[in-house]
Design brief:
With 644 residues, this protein is of the alpha+beta class. The chain has 22 helices and 16 strands. Strand 4 and strand 5 form a beta hairpin. Its main location: secreted.
Length: 644
């Protein structure tokens, strides 16, 4: 236990001010313990330290990922009681962002070590706060004459002159971008040789990103902007520009901006088009082709997982030589659009980095294009039959929502809330006075789902309760058809419930949602822990404050949907011990995805019904709610915010 506590303390110390040079005098373990580990480090020494310090690390670049995998393999081969000196050596030798990424992957994938990682936004605040904010914080700290805490306000990176500015509150949300970074920590697309791919990771790559696009479309409709247009016509100019204003002062590294109306490099276009056309051609045939020319059927059960791993592409791709790496190469091409062949030695744009990519409007256009590939696969599958949707003798009689502050039922209020992010562990300040940034984010009142269900069996039945919602009207004000609306259905929760014979009244709090993260711990909290617990480092999940779309001042109509299926049929065999938060979007660490049904069920396939009444089965319930947005800042008393 003492060894684990020491390792936990070392991880926090090495992550603290990670962009600063390491002082060996602060770590006596380095001199006393490294000698016995030279052999294993020597095996990897020429493979690591390739990416220079200060540069942007990109998971979308295979040469960067190659070094990350070598580091993970080195840590994996090291005995637990020898990790300290190896970690110290890595911290001294490798790029700081690469160090944080590779060690985070290692500890996340090894939850038995019980290491809790600090918030990425505290470790690398330069990825979440603009350079102007960081510089102002440093200046205020330098001239501080007292210990009064310094608080700097964060501003968005554009002005209302830019139409996409209306969505800056969502795209530049710190918790949202941290979620995307953490998801790719849990599900890296490359892993050391001999390791098996995670259960349904290709399908989850599709589903998590599809849900982010659906949620973003809900936000766009809320501010009277049209839904995202896929980035498919690569020969034309890209109207959306983006200036991130992010930089790393220590290395003078700047995330490059993309002016409006730029066009992709022709070489990149040709490569992307070749990959896309090959994928679509084989997808339509119903088979992907392996290196040995064997055909892999894209069937109902495993097809989406194969397509996901191949489109990304991960180590589990059906055939990397044939299909390439469409998703990753697209990120790279967009991130390098300003200097495609590197002749000007400019750094990448934000699309190269999983911690910053979601800030850029083009991220959503690119991912809607990727999502449309998955939709083509799903459109080949037979729509669900009534029998596949039924849960015999289970009937939903009614559903409604009750807000904590709203007097009326079926109404959720949204508003702004301000939270703070501490900078002291990511920036090396001159004075010891506390320095934080204050940022504004969307928030909602707490609410409860109330579901009345009748179980006509004479014994208990185990049910899986699935909850979704979607806007009722499109940008033209017309009611969406079921098949249009299903693409906007955002998952709100999923849980098991024991249905007793007769009438059941189910109440479920919004803060219990299975898509949001609840267990975030800051540096200061981790520093105070004095004992090892069984908690794993669970940081993947949509931030709770983004669970509910913004809505409109006068109310925005959303269709709510509840479906109960048989939990006995839905369950998988797994231990389910680590990181159960946000399992719908993030799965379970080193275990099976906790639901046999296809992700997004029952909205993952085409719905031919003209209206919902034609689609509905007795175990489904529909409702209509209004989400009402108030353009004011409210304090935390209305919602117990885990202040970042």
């Amino acid at each position: 236990m003492e060894d684990q506590l020491n390792l936990q303390k070392l991880v926090l110390d090495l992550f603290r001010n990670v962009s600063e040079p390491l002082s060996e005098s602060d770590f006596p373990v380095f001199a006393t313990s490294y000698a016995g580990n030279k052999d294993i480090f020597y095996e990897f020494e020429e493979k690591i330290g390739i990416l220079p310090k200060g540069r942007i690390f990109s998971t979308f670049k295979r040469e960067h990922m190659k070094e990350a995998i070598d580091i993970i393999e080195l840590l994996t081969k090291t005995e637990t009681n020898n990790l300290d000196p190896i970690m110290l050596k890595l911290r001294k030798k490798v790029n700081e962002e690469l160090f944080v990424y590779a060690t985070s992957v290692f500890f996340i994938q090894n939850p038995d070590l019980k290491i809790k990682l600090p918030l990425i936004e505290e470790v690398l605040p330069q990825k979440f706060c603009t350079g102007d904010v960081i510089r102002k914080a440093v200046k205020e700290n330098e001239k501080a004459m007292s210990m009064i805490p310094i608080i700097i306000d964060v501003e968005y990176t554009s002005t209302p002159l830019e139409p996409e500015h209306a969505l800056a509150y969502w795209r530049e949300d710190i918790g949202l971008n941290a979620h995307h970074w953490h998801w790719h920590i849990v599900y890296p697309y490359e892993w050391p040789d001999g390791n098996k791919p995670k259960d349904r990771r290709g399908e989850l790559f599709y589903y998590m990103h599809q849900q982010m696009i659906a949620r973003y479309d809900c936000e766009r409709l809320a501010v009277d902007l049209p839904r995202v247009v896929p980035l498919h016509d690569w020969d034309n100019f890209i109207p959306e520009g983006y200036a991130p204003h992010l930089n790393k002062e220590i290395a003078n590294t700047i995330y490059c901006y993309r002016p409006s109306n730029m066009i992709l490099n022709q070489v990149n276009i040709d490569e992307l088009r070749q990959m896309y056309e090959t994928i679509i051609q084989d997808l339509r045939s119903g088979f992907f082709i392996r290196n040995d020319d064997a055909k892999i059927p894209l069937d109902t059960e495993r097809g989406i997982d194969i397509v996901g791993n191949t489109v990304e592409a991960s180590n589990a791709s059906a055939n990397m030589d044939r299909y390439g790496s469409l998703h990753n190469n697209g990120h790279n091409a967009i991130a390098r659009i300003h200097d495609p062949d590197g002749r000007f030695k400019l750094e990448d744009g934000v699309m190269a980095d999983t911690a910053t990519a979601m800030r850029d409007p083009i991220f959503y256009r690119w991912h809607k294009f990727i999502d449309n590939i998955f939709l083509q696969h799903k459109s080949r599958l037979t729509p669900y039959t009534r029998e596949e949707l039924m849960f015999e003798k289970v009937i939903i009689d009614s559903i409604y929502i009750q807000g904590k502050t709203s007097k009326a039922t079926d109404k959720i209020e949204t508003f702004w809330q301000e939270s703070k992010l501490n900078l002291e562990n990511g920036i090396n300040f001159k004075n010891k006075v506390s320095v934080s940034v204050r940022y504004r984010h969307l928030q909602h009142e707490k609410f409860e789902w109330n579901i009345e269900v009748e179980n006509k069996w004479n014994e208990n039945e185990q049910g899986t309760v699935r909850i979704f919602m979607a806007p009722i009207y499109g940008e033209d004000g017309k009611e969406l058809s079921p098949n249009e609306q299903r693409l906007l259905m955002i998952e709100m929760d999923k849980f098991e419930y024991t249905l007793r014979p007769g009438t059941n009244y189910i109440s479920r709090r919004s803060d219990q949602s299975n898509v949001t993260i609840q267990t975030l711990k800051r540096f200061s909290e981790l520093d105070k822990e004095t004992k090892v617990t069984n908690e794993a480092s669970c940081s993947c999940g949509l931030p709770d404050h983004l669970l509910v779309p913004r809505g409109k001042k006068d109310g925005m109509a959303f269709q709510t949907f509840v479906m109960i299926t048989s939990a006995i049929e839905d369950r998988v065999k797994g231990k389910g011990q680590h990181c159960l938060d946000a399992a719908s979007y993030c799965g379970v660490i080193n275990d099976k995805y906790p639901d046999k049904k296809p992700m997004g069920f029952p909205f993952d396939r085409v719905i031919n019904a003209a209206d919902w009444s034609s689609f509905k089965t007795p175990n489904m319930g529909f409702g209509v709610i209004k989400i009402c947005f108030e353009d004011i800042v409210k304090d935390s008393d209305l919602h117990d915010e885990n202040d970042h």
